[in-house]
Every structure is written in C-alpha cells, then in structure tokens.
Design brief:
The protein has one domain. It is 12% helix and 43% strand. The protein is built from one helix and six strands; from the N terminus they run E-E-E-H-E-E-E. Strands 1, 2, 3, 4, 5 and 6 form a six-stranded antiparallel beta sheet that branches. The longest helix is centred in the middle third of the chain and has 11 residues.
C-alpha cells in the first residue's frame, strides 16, 4: 500500500452510552486519500449525542466545523452512534 501523502478527510463520531460504560466522548478521525485512518483524537463530554458533541466542539476546538449533518447508525453489537464530516475553519 502506498504511504499517505495527504490527510484530506476528517470526520466526527459521537456516541450513546448504550452499554452504560460511563464514558461519554467525541472522536475526530483523520483519513488519507485512500480513506485509511491515519490519526484520531477524542475528548470527553458531559452528555451523549449530537447536540452535546456540537456544544463541546465550540469549547474544545472552536476552529473545527462540522460540514455535514449528523448521520445516525448502529454498530454490529448495537452501539448507537452518529457521524459527520468536519474541517478546520
């Protein structure tokens, strides 16, 4: 596989604490031009879901902008989550 030369796509993921782990967080993933994940960072939030994620972005990374609507989904094991594309302002 070629070594990534561009880190051109970022997306956010936020979750519902479906299994009561007590870890409420938002992830920011960075993908290369081959859509491989090359890096990620996460931060904790007080509540689950997109509204809490949007509010946290303003506090944690005010220059980060969500560029698409949140898309709702469920993992194979039933974890509820949302994803959206993001970019630096």
């Amino acid at each position: 596989m070629p070594y990534p030369t561009k880190h051109h796509r970022m997306h956010l993921t936020c979750y519902m604490d479906t299994f009561n782990y007590g870890w409420h967080h938002v992830d920011l993933f960075v993908h290369d031009e081959h859509d491989r994940e090359v890096n990620w960072v996460h931060w904790t939030v007080a509540e689950d879901g997109p509204e809490a994620a949007d509010a946290s972005i303003q506090l944690v990374e005010p220059k980060l902008r969500r560029t698409t609507e949140w898309k709702h989904g469920f993992s194979a094991n039933g974890l509820e989550y949302w994803t959206a594309d993001a970019a630096w302002a």
